[in-house]
Amino acid sequence: MAVLKTENLSYVYSPGSPFEKTAVDNVNIEIEKGEFVGIIGHTGSGKSTLIQHFNGLLKPTSGKIYLNGKDIWEDKTQIRQVRFKVGLVFQYPEYQIFEETVYKDIAFGPKNMGLSKEETDRRVRATAEAVGLSEGELFKSPFELSGGQKRRVAIAGVMAMEPEVLILDEPTAGLDPKGRDLILEQIKKYHRTFGTTILLVSHSMEDVARYASKILVMNESKLFCYDETAKVFERAEEISQMGLSVPQITRVFNELKSRGIDLGEEVYTVKFAKELLVDILKKRGKLHD
Amino acid sequence: MIKDITIGQYFPGNSIIHRLDPRFKLVIALAYIVMLFAGNVFVSIITGAVFCIVSFALSRIPFKLMAKSLKPILPILLFTSILNLIFIDTGKTVFKLWILKITSGGIETSVMMIIRITLLITGTSLLTYTTSPIALTDAIERLLSPLKKIKVPVHELAMMMTIALRFIPTLIEETDKIISAQKARGADMENGNLVQKAKAMIPILIPLFISAVRRAEELATAMECRCYRGGEGRTRMRQLKASAHDFVAAGVTMIFFAALIAVNIII
């Protein structure tokens, strides 16, 4: 059974005013448990609006959302429980930090869940470790930390609720390449360790291609496609036409294909390209171990 | 959602009223207020009503919005009319109960008062509906500029107002985001007693203040980088220029005024 499912989901901002805008238009998707999904789309394509429906921050104008087969708006009073099960990390989450210490800030979510002190403590320490914060940093003021560290504190704050689904909206925005790789690796490791379903919103096709097993593409408020990574990149041309970039390496191999050199596989990471080429060269006996 | 609150209530459009020079609009609005409260009650109300309805029709603002602008003053309307009803003691007695006495004079005054206040609010909100807050501060700065002679920092005040107005939507958006982010971590803002509710505001206010201060710093730096140092010798990108139809509008207002005075003299 799908962990998250939407049915004809639509959302309209400021209906009835001159600023009316359909942000999500009739979206139907099913996300399986344990999946690592990359969500891509232009600025204003509706991806941020879409993810805010998954944990009940926005109520759909029409349509339904199911979490583990249950309509999340069936009982309005239980919406907080949905938010504990579907953790959402916003863009630039470091701006939501408010506590005196890193420890207290990470503990905010678990405390709201009404967990015991011991359980909260366990979770704070476990997630701090998962995002690479040291024991010493736990009792510092979060405002003394660097931007990248603050970001990780904020992500840990959501992870500490141990949600079934973790959604991250551009967790690497504004970070340098090193900080970006670090955070993405930590998310990947978290995914492997806890088996949490991950939804990663990103602008970077490279990042999505490297980590996600499935990709959801939003275009002009509509769902363009939701499929396995390789299948999505088969439609590289359409994606480029939308103004989204496909990974550089995919572009290279597509160009090769158009010039008559078809390697028979969809390539979207450098690592895979290397393996593929080495394989081919070995087969032709031009490369020896 | 918090974003739906209209502040400054500007309703974009391209009607004749929208295109009027904001300085003229401001002065005309003041003249309109004087019109409502000058001389004979009936005459001023009729003139005011006609003036208000005509400009309203010209502005093409939906009627629904006008009704919305009246909602917050309903309590004031009720309060004043009840006071007038009870305390004015002229004319025939219509109704008497113990010490409560309602007279025809009281009824008349309170009805007139309701109409006057309604006209006052609808007329003046037409100004804010059809003029962007920035254009309005611009107009205020220009109209008050003679006060510079007596060392009133008109430009600085107008700049502060402009900045404040400019940042209201930004800060609202920011608040909205912070509220969503804390809600996503299970913050509960709806339930609980007063103390709990006040406490629930902390996770919102602290990040909001921090970001407001950060923004102020960034803005100050950006302004200094562009050598901003007050209004002295500063020219404007968008010059306010009075056009023919501004003078027509002013003329129409004057005609209304003249009619009002004439009728008052004749009666």
Overview of this structure, please?
The complex is a heterodimer of chains A (289) and B (267). In chain A, helix 3 (102-112) crosses helix 4, helix 3 (102-112) runs parallel beside helix 5 (147-159) and helix 4 (117-130) packs across helix 5 (147-159). Chain A is globular and about 65 Å long. Chain A starts with a strand and ends in a 6-residue tail after the last helix. Chain A has helices spanning 47-54, 79-85, 102-112, 117-130, 147-159, 177-194, 205-211, 229-233, 236-241, 248-258, 270-283, and strands at residues 4-13, 21-31, 36-41, 62-67, 70-71, 86-89, 165-169, 197-201, 214-219, 222-228. Chain A has eleven helices and ten strands. In chain A, helix 6 (177-194) links the parallel strand 7 (165-169) and strand 8. With 289 residues, chain A is an alpha/beta fold. Chain A has a six-stranded mixed sheet with strand order 6-7-8-3-9-10, with helices on both faces. A four-stranded antiparallel sheet of chain A has the order 2-1-4-5, covered by helices on one side. The longest helix of chain A is centred in the middle third of the chain and has 18 residues, at 177-194. Chain A folds into two domains: 4-229, 3-Layer(aba) Sandwich (Rossmann fold); 247-289, no CATH class. In chain B, strand 1 (93-97) and strand 2 form a beta hairpin. Chain B has two domains: 8-131 and 240-267, no CATH class; 153-234, no CATH class. Chain B has helices at residues 16-19, 22-37, 41-59, 63-70, 74-87, 104-130, 133-144, 154-184, 194-225, 244-266; strands at residues 93-97, 100-103. Chain B is built from ten helices and two strands. The longest helix of chain B is centred in the C-terminal third of the chain and has 32 residues, at 194-225. In chain B, helix 7 (133-144) packs antiparallel against helix 8. Chain B has a two-stranded antiparallel ribbon. The model of chain B is unreliable at 1-7 (pLDDT under 50). With 267 residues, chain B is mainly alpha-helical. The chains are: A alpha/beta (289), B mainly alpha (267).
